[in-house]
């Protein structure tokens, strides 16, 4: 049952007419595109002009195929793809499927697995089989006559005896010549991983069974627990945890409905982070203006024409800039404000020189800030209206930068 998969190779063209496959009911039409053969994981070996067919991982393949027929959708299925890892359906659906509907679909399949339904198959006259209520077929497919009917939970003979019975709509029945499990319990579990649009009106559903489904469910449970733990954090710790969780959830392989639930919880935490950030920003602004104004008043009382201060507002450039603007506006004094962040070892700096005052004409704001940013290994843009801002990448040298800024201003203004 374990045959190593090798890529398909063809001597010429990309179509085969394989009567043996039709006889075995493994395909439904004589022309089989190479990509479908590869998608179904058939391995073709051409040897001594004889075509041999091997089915790779027949048991696992059967579990996926049977699980894929467990839900009766009102939408038209146009194609499906099964391999040893997942099931993929292409369906004609006008809009995204709601996460709650995905949850219901997943629950229906898992209930059928739990109910341990026997899977039956039988050949039937095509015209009679088509009358079975709720029976599924691939859109545009040409089926042989007689056709093989597969049903879960009820014998095919029962369906054929009373084809119009509404009860059959709740069953999983299908035209299929492929390999199936004998009982739904063999699928073990089912997890619907994603539902996404791939082109206009066409959407793709991806799911897994057996151990892959259990793994997906375990990932969801683990992330749910982490989100719950993160909700107990505050401030910057919460912000970091939320950012990390969001990235992991986006890339995690887990049931789509669970992913939607976890994303909703993370969105609530993100809202809390934004509220906290807004509150901190307001506090930083208030504190920065107050400290800068008091420093300017103290410098003025000492007969100085400039002041240089360091704030403790992290990398809040808006608060630093507002402090500089208010001092220039209310005190008419040149000022430079520094603030650092130990975690990133970065610094934000803003300088202001009242450009309408003759006493400051020797002090160019851009030159002043560029000089001060030297020890910080920083850069700044060209000043405008007497204001200039910049950042440094070595906050450990902030004291040297403070001293250099003071000596430069003294040199220019005295």
TrEMBL record:
Q: Name one GO molecular function term.
A: alanine-tRNA ligase activity
* Regions crossing the membrane: none
Its EC number is 6.1.1.7
List this protein's GO terms for biological process: alanyl-tRNA aminoacylation
Q: Which residues form the Alanyl-transfer RNA synthetases family profile domain?
A: 87-219
The record, for SUPFAM superfamilies, names:
ThrRS/AlaRS common domain (SSF55186)
* Pfam families on file: DHHA1, tRNA_SAD
Instruction: Indicate the secretion signal residues.
Output: none
Query: What class does this enzyme belong to in the EC scheme?
Result: ligase
Coiled-coil residue spans? 259-286
Q: Which UniProt keywords apply?
A: Aminoacyl-tRNA synthetase, ATP-binding, Coiled coil, Ligase, Nucleotide-binding, Protein biosynthesis, RNA-binding, tRNA-binding
Q: Which domain of life is it from?
A: Eukaryota
Which InterPro entries does the record match to this protein? Ala-tRNA-synth_IIc_core (IPR018165), Ala-tRNA_ligase (IPR050058), DHHA1_dom (IPR003156), Thr/Ala-tRNA-synth_IIc_edit (IPR018163), tRNA_SAD (IPR012947)
Q: Which family does it belong to?
A: Belongs to the class-II aminoacyl-tRNA synthetase family.
The name on file for this protein is alanine--tRNA ligase
Tell me what organism the protein belongs to: Brassica napus
């Amino acid at each position: 049952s374990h045959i190593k998969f090798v890529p398909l190779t063809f001597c010429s063209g990309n179509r085969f007419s394989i009567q043996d496959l039709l006889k075995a009911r493994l395909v439904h039409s004589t022309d089989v595109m190479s990509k479908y053969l590869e998608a179904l994981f058939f391995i073709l070996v051409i040897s001594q002009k004889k075509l041999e067919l091997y089915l790779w991982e027949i048991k696992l393949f059967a579990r996926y195929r049977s699980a894929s027929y467990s839900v009766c959708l009102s939408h038209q299925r146009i194609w499906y793809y099964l391999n040893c890892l997942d099931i993929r359906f292409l369906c004609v659906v006008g809009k995204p499927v709601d996460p709650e509907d995905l949850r219901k679909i997943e629950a229906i399949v898992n209930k059928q697995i739990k109910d341990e339904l026997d899977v039956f198959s039988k050949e039937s006259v095509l015209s009679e089989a088509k009358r079975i209520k709720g029976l599924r077929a691939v859109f545009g497919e040409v089926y042989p006559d007689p056709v093989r009917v597969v049903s879960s939970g009820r014998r095919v003979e029962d369906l054929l005896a009373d084809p119009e019975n509404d009860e059959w709509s709740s069953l999983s029945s299908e035209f299929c010549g492929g390999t199936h499990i004998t009982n739904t319990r063999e699928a073990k579990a089912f997890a619907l991983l994603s539902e996404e649009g791939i082109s206009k009106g066409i959407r793709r559903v991806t799911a897994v069974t057996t151990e892959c489904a259990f793994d997906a469910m375990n990932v969801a449970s683990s992330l749910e627990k982490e989100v719950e733990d993160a909700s107990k954090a505050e401030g910057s710790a919460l912000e970091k945890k939320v950012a990390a969780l969001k990235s992991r959830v986006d890339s995690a392989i887990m049931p789509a409905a669970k992913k939607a639930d976890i994303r909703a919880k993370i969105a609530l935490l993100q809202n809390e982070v934004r509220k906290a950030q807004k509150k901190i920003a307001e506090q930083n602004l208030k504190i920065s203006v107050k400290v800068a104004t008091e420093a300017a008043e103290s410098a003025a009382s000492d007969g100085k024409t400039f002041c240089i201060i360091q704030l403790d507002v992290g990398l809040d450039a808006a608060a630093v800039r507002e402090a500089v603007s208010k001092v220039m506006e209310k005190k008419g004094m040149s000022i430079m404000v520094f603030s650092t962040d130990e975690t990133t070892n970065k610094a934000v700096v803003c300088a202001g020189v009242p450009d309408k005052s003759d006493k400051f004409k020797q002090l160019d704001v851009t030159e002043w800030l560029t000089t001060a940013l030297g020890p910080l290994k920083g850069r700044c843009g060209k000043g405008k209206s007497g204001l200039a801002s910049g950042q440094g990448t070595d906050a450990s040298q902030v004291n040297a930068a403070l001293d250099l800024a003071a000596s430069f201003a003294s040199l220019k203004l005295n």
